[in-house]
Design brief:
This protein is mostly helical. It is 78% helix and 0% strand. The protein has seven helices and no strands. InterPro entries: TPR-like_helical_dom_sf. This is MalT-like TPR region domain-containing protein.
Length: 209
């Protein structure tokens, strides 16, 4: 009988212990805080570019763009000439002349304007001829070729009158008058300078008493 009581006692105690252990095992574990890994921020200081280097880079880019533009325009002009599209070629030469004028490359501008006029004369495009002559006169007056500029203006006026081209003759006359006045002024200055040089030379050559 005692053995039975002891057995029952041990069974009850063992069951209670198992129940306590089960509760502990089922108890939720504390939440683990997630750690976000972020790359370290590294501050990189860029060295300032010198002003002269910036200007040089801009000039290089500008020259490159001008070169590309010029090559493209020459290619178009060659295409028109190759396929005998002379009217289009004439205007392509004008575009090149305008490009060279904006770059102060007056020799190239004059050459292409003359080529444009040669084509325009063959196609009787008198208005285009007059326009080219006026541009040529402006270029020549800028570079000091006043006499040649006057010839271009006079030819433009003659064509406008003889071919009955509707163009502002008074504007051409005004240009001619301005150039004639400038030519006269320059001639007077040159004469005064020459006289002054002659007087100075004669004073130097005069015998000293």
């Amino acid at each position: 009988m005692k053995r039975l009581i002891l057995l029952l006692t041990f069974c009850i105690l063992g069951f209670n212990a198992s129940a306590q252990f089960w509760r502990l095992w089922r108890k939720p574990l504390p939440a683990i805080t997630a750690v976000q890994m972020q790359p370290p921020v590294i501050a990189i200081k860029k060295a300032p570019i010198p002003l002269n280097a910036i200007i040089e880079m801009e000039l290089d880019v500008s020259d490159y763009v001008k070169g590309v533009q010029e090559a493209s325009m020459i290619k178009v002009a060659k295409h028109h000439m190759r396929f005998r599209q002379y009217v289009d070629a004439s205007y392509s030469f004008n575009d090149l002349a305008d490009l060279y004028v904006r770059q102060n490359r007056f020799s190239e501008a004059k050459w292409f304007l003359l080529q444009s006029n040669a084509i325009a004369r063959n196609t009787d495009n008198n208005r285009h001829i007059i326009s080219n002559l006026l541009i040529l006169a402006d270029i020549k007056s800028v570079i000091g070729e006043t006499a040649l500029a006057l010839l271009d203006l006079q030819e433009a006026r003659k064509i406008a009158m003889s071919k009955d081209v509707k163009i502002d003759i008074s504007a051409i006359d005004k240009k001619i008058k301005n150039l004639q006045n400038n030519k006269t002024t320059l001639t007077k200055v040159e004469l005064r300078y020459a006289n002054a040089v002659e007087i100075a030379n004669s004073i130097k050559a005069a015998p000293v008493n």
